[in-house]
Design a protein that fits this description.
Elements: E1 8-10, H1 15-22, E2 29-34, E3 37-43, H2 44-52, E4 72-73, H3 78-84, E5 91-95, E6 101-106, H4 124-134, H5 142-154, E7 159-163, H6 166-176, E8 184-188, H7 193-201, E9 205-209, H8 220-226, E10 231-234, H9 246-256, E11 259-263, E12 271-272, E13 275-276, E14 283-287, E15 300-304, H10 307-317, H11 340-351, H12 353-371, E16 377-379, E17 387-388, E18 394-398, H13 404-413, E19 419-420, H14 441-449, E20 450-453, H15 461-479
Parallel strand pairs: 1-2, 4-5, 8-9, 8-10, 10-11, 11-14
Antiparallel strand pairs: 2-3, 5-6, 7-15, 12-13, 12-17, 14-15, 16-18, 18-20, 19-20
Helix pairs in contact: 4-11, 5-11, 6-7, 6-10, 12-15
């Protein structure tokens, strides 16, 4: 946040006092106030020029301040604020109708377009208030049951079990299936670490698999090569909202009697041939972290096709406590429960899921239209007639000649928070021992060259235009010479 004290000076102060204030802030500028009204600005350059003109530093600031400077109304639309930033102008004072200073827009923090942020303008507050009024705030309460029931109804009546996170949900799923030491589980090389960590939690052996060059999801042809007598399960990850080739994966799993555990942390609302992800495998796991398609702050959901495994998971989730004999534990379990308050947020978010997905698809289409002319974007999200990509994060792969990290830095300077995609698991110290194929070039290239752009639901067409304009211009400036 901006510290007002470091950025303002009263009109009765001297140039040397202005210089002291300028030296305290990173933008090297102060704004002059008179009776709380904004009347001028002074930069370090103005002070240097005054010194060259032999103006005494004890002179009043009015002698060198600029009266013609950029300022905006505090309620100016965000896209207008961002468009006002220039290479030489990274902070803009915001005033009310009386010209009184009320805030600053900072290109590096304030008015930055984040990668993701939740939209909580439905029934979230009403349901949370209900939890507090009724004192049902812990892991028991009506909203936990309703969230599970609503999620189950949406997903072909699979048995739904809420969890404290997507990661705990993955662990719970594998433990309930009985996967453990001596078993091998095939996971894609590009995914968030939670996927492989859950395999290690149950002491099974993860086997890293190459991704498909089009979808960036697990390559079913490569999966075939990795199956052996120890293979127990496959975890397809629907990366960034894209959908794996579920027909081939399910057929492959059936031929070899393998479990399929769908990692749907990023694919809520995605479909394969009209069927929602999470309803193909034996188990599926969703995440409701703050940046996911819907959120409960932290939280997850596990869907089981088989009631036997679901019942086992419920016991394991609640410390392994016998359902018919309180405080009696037949096995070691976990505390992976979701609270009633978190579930209340989830219920409200789930009510809005159709409009969230509709907006995600609209954002993806806006990006596609704005970025399609760039020669340095090598691949856009793959579009298949068989899949509905929910575009959790809109991600593109750049040319190999582009320094992806430099582009990210330049975007941030323009007020746009983008991010790199996941590192391949085989490159990181805890996991490189599980690379058995040594054929992971697609994973390496995708990770090195790809960028995820802001994708939150509240984005407007004007903001997409701004992001795209900055992105394309940065690429041109750096590489199209």
């Amino acid at each position: 946040m901006i510290n007002f004290i470091d950025y303002v000076i009263q009109s009765n102060k001297t140039i040397v006092e202005a210089l002291n204030a300028i030296n305290k802030n990173k933008h090297k500028i102060v704004f002059v106030l008179e009776n709380n009204k904004l009347i001028g600005s002074i930069t370090d350059g103005d002070v240097r020029r005054a010194i060259l003109k032999k103006i005494s530093l004890e002179e009043n600031v009015a002698s060198i301040m600029k009266k013609d400077f950029t300022k905006l109304l505090y309620n100016a639309p965000n896209h207008l604020v961002r468009n006002a930033f220039k290479d030489y102008l990274k902070i803009i004072p915001l005033v009310n109708d009386n010209d009184e200073l009320v805030d600053f827009a900072d290109a590096y923090s304030n008015h930055k377009l984040p990668l993701m942020k939740p939209k909580l303008d439905g029934n979230e507050l009403a349901y949370i208030t209900d939890c507090i009024k009724t004192s049902w705030i812990s892991s028991q309460g009506p909203y936990v049951n309703k969230f599970e029931q609503d999620f189950s109804l949406l997903h072909s009546n699979y048995h739904a079990i809420s969890a404290s996170s997507g990661t705990s949900g993955l662990h719970l799923a594998l433990a309930a299936l009985g996967i453990g030491e001596g078993d091998e589980v095939i996971v894609p090389d590009v995914t968030f670490a939670a996927t492989i960590n859950a395999v290690l939690f149950v002491k099974a052996t993860p086997v890293l698999c190459e991704i498909d060059s089009r979808t960036w999801c697990i390559d079913t042809n490569e999966v075939k090569k990795l199956i052996n007598k120890n293979t127990k399960a496959i975890i397809p990850v629907h990366l960034y909202g894209q959908v794996c080739d579920m027909d081939n994966l399910i057929e492959l799993a059936g031929d070899h009697d393998l479990f399929v555990v769908e990692d749907c942390a990023e694919s809520l609302g995605s479909k394969w041939k009209g069927q929602l992800t999470g309803t193909f495998g034996d188990v599926s796991v969703f995440s409701f972290f703050g940046n996911k398609t819907i959120t409960t702050g932290e939280g997850g959901m596990v869907l089981f096709k088989n009631k036997h495994f679901a019942d086992k998971a419920r016991v394991l989730r609640d410390h392994g406590m016998d359902k018919s004999r309180r405080y009696w534990h037949n096995e070691i379990g976990f505390n992976y429960r979701l609270t009633n308050i978190q579930a209340a947020i989830g219920v409200a978010q789930l009510e809005r899921l159709p409009e969230i997905i509709k907006k995600k698809l609209e954002i993806a289409n806006w990006y596609k239209n704005e970025l399609k002319e760039s020669l340095l974007i090598e691949k856009f999200p793959h579009e298949s007639h068989d899949a509905l990509h929910s575009h959790w994060l809109y991600t593109v792969q750049l040319s190999e000649k582009v320094d992806r990290d430099l582009v990210l830095d330049e975007l941030l300077k323009s007020g746009v928070e983008a991010r790199p995609v996941f590192y391949p698991l085989h490159q990181m110290p805890p996991y490189n021992q599980f690379n058995t194929s040594n054929n992971l070039g697609i994973s390496n290239k995708f990770s090195k060259c790809s960028i995820s752009l802001p994708s939150f639901e509240a984005l407007t067409i004007y903001e997409i235009e701004y992001i795209s304009h900055e992105f394309v211009n940065i690429l041109k400036k750096l590489y199209e010479k």
